[in-house]
Specification:
This protein is mostly helical. It has six helices and no strands. The chain is globular and about 55 Å long.
Amino acid sequence: WQYGALRIAQAVLDAIASLGLVLVLHFGWEGRAGGVALANVAVAAIAFVLLLGGRWMRFPARRDDVRAALRFGLPLVPHLASGMVLALFDRFLIAGTLGLAGVGIYMVAVQVGMAMGLVTDAFNRAYAPWLLETIKLQDARRDLRIVRWTYGYFVVLLAAALLAGLFAEPLLRLLAGEQYLVAAPVI
């Protein structure tokens, strides 16, 4: 629950900071990047304070703990860097083929789609640990119930995606304005 609350706080801070920087201060794309950065720094600071307060972190750190953390974390750096490249690659590809206006339209569609991604990501992060612990019990009736509920979840996600597509135009009109209605087919 704490992790979920922290992630939700990050999303809310990101949205507020980005909207403020873009709409109020007119920073353009830099405002969006700044909003993301501000939210990440704020949540990192909150997490740091929570870790210290919960006594999950101590200073000075023991040398063998630092080595173990580095041994675990350093190999993940190339993985994270490649993830960021993959996350940005689509924008470079679109900019090269359709120009910056095409990237803007695409990003509006992506932002609308990310709302569904936020919900599914939060659910999956909460559900996965419970699921892994539950399937260890090897209870056939419970396993069958899990499969049924999972299929139901897939149907709900599909219905939500279809509804987002059906209501893309009014949603875009409300959230982004008339000039971005061309993003509706992308959604």
